[in-house]
Amino acid sequence: MRKGLSRRAVLGGALASATSLRLRAHADEAPVVHEVTIKRFTYEPKHIQARVGDIIRWTNLDIAPHTASADDLSWDTGELKKGESAEMVINDRMELTYFCVFHPHMKGKIEIV
């Protein structure tokens, strides 16, 4: 005797299909480049919402050198002198809060959406 599908099974399958389509749609999208300027000893913007695969570009507009360095020091842009830029691709395992090693009061945050 064959059992019919339960409501739970149908809803679970529909949810899995919708999630798969949503993930596939994002995979087909080109990465977004998020621009962060460093000026007056702050990151602008301080908070970035980005997807995995997006790129963040930090550009130093100050006379003083700066960095964007993970709080746990797992990644770092290196020293950025005035007019210099550095890029990083967002991944789901990276530390999401960062600071400047020369000026620790400067802080930024990445939120994966």
Automatic annotation (TrEMBL):
Domain EfeO-type cupredoxin-like: 16-110
Pfam families per the UniProt record, alphabetical: Cupredoxin_1
InterPro entries in UniProt: Cupredoxin (IPR008972), EfeO_Cupredoxin (IPR028096), ET_Amicyanin (IPR052721), TAT_signal (IPR006311)
Domain of life: Bacteria
Protein name (database record): Plastocyanin
Organism: Ruegeria denitrificans
Lineage of producing organism: Bacteria, Pseudomonadati, Pseudomonadota, Alphaproteobacteria, Rhodobacterales
